[in-house]
Design a protein that fits this description.
alpha/beta, globular, 45% helix, 2 domains, Rossmann fold, two-stranded parallel ribbon
Length: 189
């Protein structure tokens, strides 16, 4: 939402936090689709012109299904910024991701796919405590080697960015730029 507000400051925003169902990283596809559908329905019932799924896992599993269920609505999803990372970096990039997101996508050989089962929950527990987030980032990255940059493949992982000592890519700016493009072409003001 911060990226959207930064790039589209005059828009009105409605934020829906799905804390009861999160994190999605190890749920079944059916559970993720049901939770995402519930949220999208709430947003559109409240009068939203567009919805952004701010979860990489829910995007990977549910975005296509939801676009078919709501064909007249704008539904965007947060994607890991793998392509921008690969375009900018010469070496390998580490993609930190949930098991579900990893299962739904394939990546080029230059991508080290770091599947993290508990990291989203651990970030939630450490949220607001810089020393705990720093320790969590250090511990997580120590499991991997041979990378020049990190891609956050879960919106929770963005909270580790200040504690990662290499370039970090996330999909927030990309989804905000896509939102600008989509609302401009659809005539939404």
């Amino acid at each position: 939402m911060a990226a959207c507000k930064r790039l589209i400051p005059r828009a009105s925003y409605l934020y829906l936090d799905d804390a009861p169902d999160a994190p999605y990283g190890e749920k079944s596809d059916e559970e993720i689709i049901a939770a995402a559908d519930k949220c999208i329905n709430i947003l559109f019932s409240a009068g939203c012109d567009a919805a952004v799924i701010a979860c990489n896992t829910a995007t990977a599993v549910a975005a296509g299904v939801l676009r078919k269920r709501y064909p007249d609505k704008i539904i965007l999803g947060l994607e890991p910024a793998v392509l921008p990372a690969l375009r900018s970096e010469r070496g390998r990039v580490l993609l930190l991701t949930t098991p579900v997101t990893a299962r739904h996508k394939t990546y080029p050989d230059r991508v080290i796919v770091g599947v993290e089962r508990e990291l989203a929950s651990d970030v939630e527990k450490a949220y607001g405590c810089p020393s705990a987030l720093h320790a969590l980032a250090k511990h997580t990255l120590s499991k991997y080697s041979g990378f020049d940059a990190v891609v956050t493949g879960c919106s929770h992982y963005a909270h580790l960015t200040p504690y990662i000592h290499c370039r970090v890519y996330d999909g927030a700016d990309g989804v905000a730029r896509r939102l600008i493009s989509v609302i401009s072409s659809s005539g939404i003001t």
